């Protein structure tokens, strides 16, 4: 299993609409990509390791696929449409990384 | 539900022993913290958004708790012992952040 992680950095001028992200953006991704996207996880950054410190990321979204090949086959045909939705909920440029799921 | 994420940056001189991390370190954390740690997840960074690019993080570990209060009560008494185990599997200083689980 692989995980595509999209990490939205916590900049000082950051805007991020979590309701749009979870209620409209992620459902659109699931609809376009279909069952190949096995699971979606989303977190909101609260703090660093100390409660009063700033989190490195404001929001984190993760898409799970059986393999990188399945991700590429099913996501890339819709990548432009999905990326075009970003300005509807954020002004941030996310850091994206592909991970192997080792424990879950 | 909250998630404590420990992100190990992918530096050029990075050392990270994933076997030790999953077979010894994380089981030790689970044993010390007990059932308050609801779940443990671990990922290995494979690449950035492009298959031939470097991932931002080499490894990512996540501990799930019912609340920040439960995390503090159950983890902090063991924090020194847990942190002292890091040199046994890595030379990296992790980025730590506490997240609220929004979708899972």
Descriptive key words:
globular, 104 residues, homodimer
Q: Largest interface: which pair?
A: A-B, 33 and 33 residues
- What's the pLDDT, averaged over the residues of chain A? 97
Assign a percent range to the helix content of chain A.
25-40%
Quaternary organization: homodimer
Assign an overall shape of chain A: globular
Low-pLDDT sequence parts of chain A? none
**What is the H/E order of chain A?**
EHEEHHE
Largest sheet of chain A: 4 strands, antiparallel
How many helix segments of chain A?
3
Major beta sheet, strand line-up of chain A: 2-3-1-4
Radius of gyration of chain A: 14 Å
Strand % of chain A is 25-35%
Query: Structural class of the helix and strand makeup of chain A?
Result: alpha+beta
- What is the CA–CA distance across the termini of chain A? 10 Å
Molecular structure report:
The longest helix of chain A has 16 residues, at 18-33. Chain A has a four-stranded antiparallel β-sheet. In chain A, 28% of the residues lie in helices and 35% in strands. Chain A has three helices and four strands, in the order βαββααβ. Chain A has 104 residues and is of the alpha+beta class. Chain A has helices spanning 18-33, 68-75, 79-83, and strands at residues 2-9, 39-48, 57-65, 95-103. In chain A, β2 and β3 (57-65) form a beta hairpin. The model of chain A has no long low-confidence stretch (mean pLDDT 97). Chain A is globular, with a radius of gyration of 14 Å. The A-B interface holds A 2-3, 5, 7, 18, 22, 26, 40-49, 51, 55-57, 60, 68, 95-104 and B 2-3, 5, 7, 18, 22, 26, 40-49, 51, 55-57, 60, 68, 95-104. β2 of chain A pairs antiparallel with β4 (95-103) of chain B, so a sheet runs across the interface.
């Amino acid at each position: 299993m692989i995980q595509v992680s999209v990490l939205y950095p916590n900049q000082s001028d950051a805007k991020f609409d979590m309701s749009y992200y979870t209620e409209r953006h992620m459902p659109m991704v699931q609809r376009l990509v279909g069952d190949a996207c096995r699971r979606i996880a989303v977190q909101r950054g609260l703090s660093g390791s100390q409660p009063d410190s700033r989190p490195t990321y404001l929001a984190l979204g993760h898409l799970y696929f059986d393999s990188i090949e399945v991700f590429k086959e099913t996501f890339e045909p819709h990548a432009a449409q999905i990326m075009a939705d970003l300005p509807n909920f954020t002004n941030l440029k996310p850091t994206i990384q592909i991970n192997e799921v080792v424990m879950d």
